[in-house]
Amino acid sequence: MINEGGKHLFFACLGVLHLLVAIFGILNYGLKDNLNGARATFGVTFTIARAAALVLHIDVIFILLPVCRNFISLLRRTPLNQIIPFDKNITLHKATAWSIVGGTVVHVLAHMMRRPVAQSLFAFLNANFATGPGLTGWIMTVALGIMVFFAVEKRKRANFEHFWYSHHLFIVFFICWQLHGMFCMIKPDRPPYCSWNTIGVFWRYWLVGGLIWIWERVLREIRSRHRTYISKVIQHPSNVMEIQIKKDNTVTRAGQYIFLSCPEISYFQWHPFTLTSAPEEDYISVHIRVVGDFTRDLAKVLGCDFDKKSGERDEKGEKDGGRVVGTSANPPLSRVLPRVMVDGPFGSASEDYLKYETVLLVGAGIGVTPFASILKSIWYRMNNFNNSKPTRLSKVYFTWVIRDFGSAEWFHSLLHAIEEQDSQNRIEINIYLTAKIKEDDMTNIIVQDKHPETDVGVFFCGPAVLSRQLHQMCNRYSSPGGTRFFFGKDSAGMIISRVRKE
């Protein structure tokens, strides 16, 4: 209940809502006195199809809200965040999507099994492809099938662009959904047979979520036109580049992430990256590991050259380290950098670190990026630098699980600087250099013996397998009257990790 209570209660309430809608829908369409003709003609399949359609309309209320990132970021800062698990927004979006798939299957099968259509092939083809409801229904089904096909995790990892572009078929899906019920093919027994408030009611359910989503899209276009320029590009070892960006009207919080687009590569592609700059700094920065098509193209247009292997020594015999790539502010090279567009920042679970007196930050591999911003901000706050706000944090444990030191060399200098300046030892840094962390190691990460009867915030970013282990340990070592470990997985960081692999 400490870590999963809110999520379980929320999804249980959502399930009960769907069940109640289905039950009352069946009762309504099965007993309504002006639908006797439809029930006599189509039998129980009419009742099932209409009840399933009603449940689908309920799903429309929820399907867009979880992907409205600005809206979710605002709600995270309200007391509702203690009740509704906003950090599970993508989980809600996926659950709602599968509910739509299930409801669609029930709706389609119920219509397919109705008695008049089963009488002849001609009647079947006529009802399905020569009528407005039939044609729009099949267009919706095909669009939904394509979206689901490319949204399956394995295919999404294989080709993110296919997922991204095919997902925009939801516009076709929604338009056909609105038209689907407007033909008044199955009429009630008495007039008014088809009034404005009984047909094509999709817009009523879509209205709130749809308007918020449109507002989000408009806001993205407005933000993308703000004055933005790259102030510095640093090429780090291990195929990592750092981009420092100056942007007007941008206020950030530690642990947040942004979406980045480079029109020179593609105007329509937006990719998420964790902020590695602290709110106290006068720029925003991201560290990007160059492993995919988009990141390689971005590195190329920014002037980075990763052909030299990490650790290779130059002509002076010095090991290759971070180097500044030519910019207008630092012009070792004479070149014009491309324009970038920034959308965000958006909130994540890691933002909640300020709620606790003791926090445990656990990063794995490149998943350490969200904690660069947090560690720097904590250091600023604890030392009252750059007009930073005070903090109630008294102790920070940072644990980094990494297979080899070379995978994130850019982070070493930051940790070294923090250790040197932390004279009061309020930030404790531990590094596990291992290919596979054992349960004993995971147990050692939990710091119950050092902080009895304390609420400890545990924040993680990295592979799902390690996330589950740490989550289980937080539950195992939490006690209602003693130390409680509140687990928060950085879902934004998980998205970013997957995109980089792709």
Short structural description:
This protein has 502 residues and is of the alpha/beta class. The protein has 18 helices and 12 strands. It starts with a helix and ends with a helix.
Structure description:
The chain has 502 residues and is of the alpha/beta class. It has three domains: 5-221; 228-311 and 319-346, Translation factors (Elongation Factor Tu (Ef-tu), domain 3); 349-501, Nucleotide-binding domain of ferredoxin-NADP reductase (FNR) module (Rossmann fold). It is 46% helix and 15% strand. It is built from 18 helices and twelve strands. It has helices at residues 5-31, 36-42, 44-63, 69-76, 89-112, 115-118, 121-129, 132-151, 153-158, 160-166, 170-180, 202-224, 293-301, 369-383, 410-421, 439-445, 464-476, 491-501, and strands at residues 228-236, 240-247, 257-261, 271-274, 284-289, 323-325, 341-346, 358-364, 395-402, 427-433, 455-461, 484-489. The protein has a five-stranded parallel beta sheet, sandwiched between helices. A four-stranded antiparallel beta sheet has the order 5-2-1-6, with no helix packed on it. α15 links the parallel β9 (395-402) and β10 (427-433). α3 runs antiparallel to α5 and α8 (132-151) runs antiparallel to α11. The longest helix has 27 residues, at 5-31. It is globular. The two termini are 35 Å apart. Mean pLDDT is 79; it is low at 310-320 and 492-502.
Main sheet overview:
5 strands, parallel
User: What is the number of beta strands?
Assistant: 12
List the total number of helices: 18
Order of helices and strands: HHHHHHHHHHHHEEEEEHEEEHEHEHEHEH
Low-pLDDT stretches are: 310-320, 492-502
- The share of residues in extended strands comes to 15-25%
**Given the helix and strand composition, which structural class is it?**
alpha/beta
